[in-house]
Amino acid sequence: MQPDLLLLNPKVYNSYFKQWTEANVAVKDGKFMYIGPRGEETFRAKQVIDASGLYMIPGFIDIHLHIESTMVTPASFSEGLLRNGVTTIVPEPHEMANVFGLGGVLEMIKASRECAVDMFYAIPSSVPATSLETSGGSIEIEDMEALLATGDVICLGEIMNYVDIIADPDCKTNRILKHMKERHPELVIEGHVPKLLDLDLQRVISAGVDSDHTHQTVEGLKERIGAGMFIEIQEKSMTPEIMDYLIQHDVSERFCFVTDDVMADSFEARGHLNHIVRKAIGMGMAPEKAIYAATFSPSRRMRLYDRGTIAPGKIADFQLIANLESMQLETVFKNGKETYSASNPSPLQATRYRFPEHFYRSVQLSELDEADFAAQVDVEDGTYLCRVMTVRDGSTFTQESHIEFDAVGGRLKWEGTGCGMIATFERYGKHGGKAFGFINGDTIQKGAVATTYSHDNHNLLVVGHNVADMLLAANTVIRQQGGFCVVLDGEVMANMHLPVGGILTEEPLGAAAESVKQLREAMQALGYKHYNPIMSIATHSLPVSPYLKITDRGLIDVNAGQIVPLIIEKR
After folding, report:
1. Which of 21, 292, 551, 571 could be cross-linked to 133 through a Cys-Cys bond (beta carbons 3.0 to 4.6 Å apart)?
2. ω into residue 547 within 30 of 0, thus cis?
3. What pLDDT, in 10s, does the model give residues 153-175?
4. What gap in Å lies between CA 400 and CA 415, rounded to an integer?
């Protein structure tokens, strides 16, 4: 018998027993052919590799992530994944969908077809996430049917508007869920249900949403698993209490590891899903269980039964690991062929793919002037109690604080109060909507930041402590058709150009990582105290993430699901 590849004596991970066995492995036509004691006396392989002393595990599978969070195109993302042992992903391009609608999703799928990593897409289910914001595009039921017809889609992406599921039987989200349950009853439906418990949680599950990837507590984890939910553990949920629960209880079939959002500098420095696995092992989880949660259980969740395990007939996506605790990677194989070697890494192969020309002209917004940051209000002179967005390190949730501001001549006096201004501007040329509010806490304490990378609507978001810096940051981003700019005292400290839809760069991952690192350091120099200042500020306009947010329509009370006034009362 003549396989294409024969690996001799690796320690092979058996997913079904969660155990290791020393065996020889034969691969033919991109699939595993044999795992067992037979070797060169039986097989005359075209290539033989002595894998003695190495661990052989399946390629990692990440079933919940957003490529756009890394701010790179699928080609750059794929190259970074392979260097970290990830061979299959299920991305949800709801950021591109918010900018370009169905066309944005289709272009991401097209761009992915040139990539070595398999990318099976999730349909963006909440575009826009709510009716409380203006996005560049939307995804309707007919668009979802068009995406299902491509053959590149395997699930309905995270249902984000859980408030409407509970409160409004006739809302768009409930119509989508009803349609999918009737027309596509086998389709996997992903969820986003932070903090929900008891009756509200079970109402969401009853509607068809049976997974959650948001920040977990032990109480919430137990309720979700007990009610039949599948849990996707991202790094922010890897608290000692959560990890202890996962280690001590037999719930391997009910959870997996995911990355969700990975910034480019973290990707380059720490890795991807392999970083999560390494961290889990460092927190006391057995390597066999951690590997299972990054290979077998995610493949089963997404019904990718042809991968996630080293077994006859399965796709030969695998890694050779020198050290389990550190996940020291030696070689990655995709479809039975070596695609990455740590000892001889090859540079990123340039992709010929180019997005349509209008993807590079998505910021339909004239440059701003001082009047756009005048804090104008229709009130008489006096002192007013106002809502303020308060940022806290450790979470992308923001709190609502109440602080007094003086109004003089129809303007609120905010500069010098210790609070900054936060403002957002509709940038798609639809109606020119804009809104402003105030911000404090662990955010910047001076200067300004502006970006079109603002979840999920990706309108222009500006935070600052003086109008001059806010204008420079905002107009820099507008002039370059999207990006992320940090300014202090009239000088640009960091600027990342994001020409594709105002949210992606076509630079290689390493170059993007350096730009993100400079942004992060510049924001920290302005006083931002957060484990991820870029993601923190980018979610200030996300009206499904508790508690007080802002969109072009105004301040949003997320739990109530409604616009609330900036001014509470006169004092």
Report:
1. 551
2. yes
3. 999 999 988 888 998 999 999 99
4. 19
